[in-house]
Design goal:
CATH architecture of one domain in chain A: Up-down Bundle
CATH architecture of one domain in chain B: Up-down Bundle
Shape of chain A: flat
Radius of gyration of chain A: 23 Å
Radius of gyration of chain B: 26 Å
CATH topology of one domain in chain A: Four Helix Bundle (Hemerythrin (Met), subunit A)
Helix content of chain B: 55-70%
Order of helices and strands of chain A: HHHHHH
Number of strands of chain A: 0
Strand content of chain A: under 5%
CATH superfamily of one domain in chain A: Cytochrome c oxidase, subunit III, four-helix bundle
CATH topology of one domain in chain B: Cytochrome C Oxidase, Chain A
Oligomer: heterodimer
Structural class of chain A: mainly alpha
Number of helices of chain A: 6
Strand content of chain B: under 5%
Number of helices of chain B: 20
Largest sheet of chain A: none
Largest interface: A-B, 60 and 74 residues
Structural class of chain B: mainly alpha
Helix content of chain A: over 70%
Distance between the termini of chain A: 63 Å
Distance between the termini of chain B: 54 Å
CATH class of one domain in chain A: Mainly Alpha
Strand order of the largest sheet of chain B: 1-2-3
Shape of chain B: globular
CATH class of one domain in chain B: Mainly Alpha
Largest sheet of chain B: 3 strands, antiparallel
Number of strands of chain B: 3
């Protein structure tokens, strides 16, 4: 096994004092990408559980997709959610320009629109609960609620994070540490949007069309 | 309440009351007494040595990858011992409870362990050995070695590294406290479904198991992220992918496996917890649940997990064997490709754990062939190691003995694994101790590699060698124990002995069960010599002191370039990488003794107690959920969220070590002295050694625009 060395051992450079600092922001965002990969594995597990339990036998004689899925309500929620993502995109434009007012306006818009989505979804679920369609009713409903509420939990944490970042943008300013957190939050916020695309397509639209 | 279970519940204490402390069981009572006395002795010793301050400043609050790695290894070794004692108890029960005439003691009809207690012991043994012993030891070794091998100052995220460790410690604490408060799961380390459901296991045992493994798997996921980013982003200049040491390749592959598989486990056990706490029906036999869904999700994690533990072991063998063969590793590229390939194939084999589910010949054939495919990259590795040995100048130091025995075990375990990969054979031996013997052979490969790694890298980390004579005795007794115990177990498996039984109805199996007990006695002797090795080595640490950086004289990779023990800054000046085995290349070209001309200031992160505090709150969260003290669970969760947010407001300013100080430390190393405050007791925070300049937090905050 040769060492594959092309340098002359007598004159080779042994030390590299200049190369000391790594780019902090890309290091942090790479780690956050990897975290999102692991989170995507949880989402896939929940999707797999939903697909396994989305069968007439798993409703245990109780309500099925046609009873619990309201695609029109979910559509209005989707509009709000994607507008929230658009608002976050506006905040990123402000970040590129270094304008804190645009950043704050974008974050505030994302906060309000994301909160609106939660209200729509919460109202929908409250009605289902009043009709006795709760997770304890059957395996199918357990999987349905787990999947949709896991996305909802992302939204709750995303909103909390947006509030924290608004405070940091105001009090700390756009320092490298705040910037990498804003970029990671962007990844997180878009990621919950991706989850919702799949939930809306495979749970709400497919359930409304093919519900057993 | 969403779910109903027997026993009282009060708002403040939840399900906890004084009767949950099992003092009436003599085994647990005496364990409790011994552990308490031991704990008091340790605390008294720390107080007597006035070590609380340095323990807190330099270890418990450390963000130094070497110290966190050492703490990981210590935690793993303590748990290895705990899991081993579970093994001793199981072997003894099975050697005693043979045949209808075998006597019973301490409330058991046969042997000395009632079935419920025996169930807890094998569940704890499996859970502890895989998740809280082997995994922390390997994560600890990767923590110590990977940054050194790639020439980095630290991991990519030193703070997150400490958080991962303290979350692992919290999970381990949950497993340990289940001994003395309540009980542990009796449903196997796999959480046999639907036995884990509340209707069939109404106690807190399954809850202890589920919260401990959920916290532990989150910690391992975070550690995997850290190692991947460290390898991608922190390699020294000149270290291209094909110049990276093989241990780093296996660490990368294993971390990708860990990152992508542990979340599935978290999800599976979280859904089980929803069943147990919120009354859902994911895995219940009635009301639309599907119990095979759990088994699938579990093994989608479970099989990648066994490669998660075997891959770093392969990396360790690839470091030890070339050093003691005095040759470069044979087939570097194929070794790296094989490491990644094993990680990839690990994803497509999970169903071989339940061929008997009856998924049909098509499905079984697919997973059978996929399982056999694993043999190809593993075979490549074995041949590469064999060719590395071929015509090498082989020395039989203690690490090499462990490594060579690991190869023999890998051959046996691999061949029996091929047998189990065939559904026709699998149907015959499913759920027999043949399976147990197979995976214990494989996990012993990991164990042998870990013991080899500890002997191999110990002088690098601590600056003195482990004792050779007691080390060899430990090795020979341990190997003899392995072959006697698991050889007998293979034979019993062919005879059809089922796994997990507390009573053996056939007296004809008695001789082999007694042979297994002989094997466990050999293990006990081996552990005596392991402890003695540590004690003797620490006693004789002055004679065993190593002064050269390359302790073994023939090592090859970059960690042997820096001093032993490794100074807190790892490398005084970042090395430039010219060759695949950089240290061997410098040594062979006569440039090993050169040191840098200029020393620059070094910037390091400061220590913080926050990871420890987060770990403590996580432990409180797990404990309160087990006992359904919902107020404490809510409080812990809020505390964790608030602490994480508060941390984001105070950025780590770090501290700077002046170049002049580095020059002093380097000079005293070259004079053969271990400089005060450079390694063992001085690494870390700004208070740990004189002359450090800590920048104040406000220095880092720029003016508002």
């Amino acid at each position: 096994m040769s060492q594959e060395v092309s340098v002359n051992p007598a004159t080779a450079v042994l030390w590299d004092p200049s190369h000391s600092e790594h780019d902090m922001i890309t290091t942090r965002t790479l780690g956050f990408w990897l975290y999102l990969l692991s989170d995507a594995m949880i989402v896939s597990s929940l999707f797999a559980s939903y697909l396994v339990l989305d069968h007439r036998i798993n409703t245990a004689g109780g309500p099925g997709p046609r009873d619990v899925i309201h695609p029109v309500t979910a559509f209005w929620g989707t509009v709000l959610l994607f507008s929230a993502i658009l608002a976050y995109g506006a905040a990123m434009v402000g970040l590129k320009r270094g304008d804190r007012r645009i950043v704050l306006a974008g974050l505030g818009g994302a906060l309000l629109l994301g909160g609106g989505f939660l209200l729509v979804e919460g109202r929908d679920f409250a009605q289902l609960a009043l009709q006795g369609m709760v997770p304890e009713r059957s395996g199918y409903l357990s999987a349905f609620y787990a999947l949709v509420l896991y996305h909802g939990a992302h939204l709750v944490f995303g909103l909390l994070w947006i509030v924290v970042m608004m405070v940091q943008v105001v009090h700390i300013g756009l320092t490298p540490h705040v910037v990498y957190r804003l970029l990671n939050l962007k990844l997180f916020w878009f990621f919950q949007g991706f989850i919702w695309i799949y939930v809306f397509s495979f749970v709400y639209l497919a359930g409304a069309v093919h519900g057993h | 309440m969403l779910v109903s279970y027997p026993g009282p519940w009060t708002p403040f204490f939840g399900r906890l009351d004084a009767q949950q402390i099992p003092l009436q069981n003599p085994i647990l009572f005496w364990t409790f007494v011994l552990v308490s006395l031991g704990g008091v002795a340790v605390l008294a010793a720390i107080t007597y040595l006035r070590a609380w301050g340095s323990l807190w400043r330099e270890w418990l609050t450390s963000v130094d990858h070497k110290k966190i790695g050492v703490m990981y290894c210590l935690l793993g070794i303590v748990m290895l011992f705990r899991g081993f004692i579970d093994g001793v108890m199981m072997r003894t029960q099975q050697a005693m409870a043979v045949g209808p005439r075998s006597p019973g003691y301490m409330g058991a009809l046969h042997g000395y362990l009632p079935p419920y207690h025996f169930g807890q012991i094998y569940s704890a043994h499996g859970t502890i050995m895989i998740l809280f012993a082997i995994t922390p030891i390997l994560v600890g070794l990767m923590n110590i070695i990977v940054p050194l091998q790639i020439g980095a100052r630290d991991m990519a995220y030193p703070y997150l590294n400490a958080v991962s460790f303290w979350l692992t410690a919290a999970a381990t604490g949950l497993v340990m406290i289940s001994l003395f408060v309540g009980d542990f799961s009796h449903a196997g380390w796999v959480g046999l479904s639907p036995l884990t459901e509340l209707a069939y296991s109404p106690g807190v045992g399954v809850d202890y198991w589920s919260w401990a493994v959920q916290i532990g798997s989150i910690a391992t996921t975070l550690a995997s992220i850290n190692i991947i980013v460290t390898i991608i982003k922190m390699r020294a200049p000149g270290m291209t992918w094909t110049k990276m040491p093989i241990f780093c390749w296996t660490a990368l592959s294993t971390s990708v496996v860990g990152l992508s598989s542990f979340p599935v486990f978290t999800a599976a056990v979280a859904l089980l917890s929803l069943d147990r706490y919120a009354g859902t029906h994911f895995f219940t036999p009635g009301l639309g649940g599907n119990l095979m869904l759990y088994t699938d999700l579990f093994w989608i994690w479970g099989h990648p997990e066994v490669y998660y533990v075997i891959l770093p072991a392969f990396g360790i063998l690839s470091e030890i064997i070339p050093t003691f063969s005095e040759k470069p590793l044979f087939g570097y590229i194929t070794m790296a490709v094989a490491s990644i390939a094993i990680g990839g194939v690990s994803w497509s084999v999970w169903l071989h754990h339940f061929f008997t589910m009856g998924a049909g010949p098509g499905v079984n054939a697919f997973f059978s062939i996929a399982s056999m495919l694993v043999g190809i990259p593993t075979g490549v590795k074995v041949f590469n190691w064999a060719f590395t040995l071929y015509r090498g100048r082989v020395r039989f130091d203690v690490p090499m003995l462990w490594a060579l025995a690991a190869l023999v075990l890998l051959l046996i375990g691999g061949l029996t694994g091929m047998m189990l990969a065939m559904p026709a054979i699998n149907y015959t031996v499913h759920n027999s101790v043949f399976v147990v013997a197979h995976f214990h052979t494989m996990l012993n490969v990991v164990g042998f590699a870990c013991f080899g790694a500890i002997n191999y890298w110990f002088p690098k980390v601590f600056g003195f060698r482990l004792d050779e004579r007691t080390g060899k005795r430990a090795f020979w007794f341990f190997s003899a124990g392995t072959f006697v115990l698991f050889g007998s177990m293979y034979a019993l498996g062919f005879m059809g002995m089922p796994r997990r039984i507390d009573y053996i109805p056939f007296p004809s199996w008695r001789p082999l069960l007694i042979a297994e007990e002989v094997g466990i006695v050999l293990f006990v002797i081996a552990s005596y010599y392991m402890i003695k090795q540590l004690v003797v080595s620490i006693r004789d640490r002055v004679q065993n002191r190593v002064t050269s950086s390359d302790v073994w004289g023939t090592a090859r990779s970059l960690e042997w370039l820096t001093h032993s023990p490794v100074p807190f800054y790892n490398f005084a000046v970042q090395p430039h990488i010219n060759a695949r085995d950089e240290w061997a290349w410098r040594r062979e070209h006569g440039r090993g003794a050169e040191s840098p001309e200029h020393y620059e200031d070094i910037h390091l992160p400061i220590n913080t107690p926050l990871p420890l505090i987060l770990g403590a709150w996580t432990f409180a969260l797990g404990f309160s959920l087990v006992w359904r003290m919902y107020w404490l669970a809510a409080l812990s969760l809020i505390a964790i969220v608030v602490l994480v947010i508060a941390r984001s407001f105070q950025d780590d300013p770090g501290h700077t070590v002046p170049g002049a100080r580095i020059r002093e430390i380097e000079a005293s190393y070259r004079n053969g002295l271990e400089p005060a405050g450079a390694a063992g007791d001085g690494a870390g925070g700004p208070v740990a050694y004189p002359g450090a300049v800590a920048s104040r937090p406000q220095d880092n905050v720029p003016a508002r625009p």
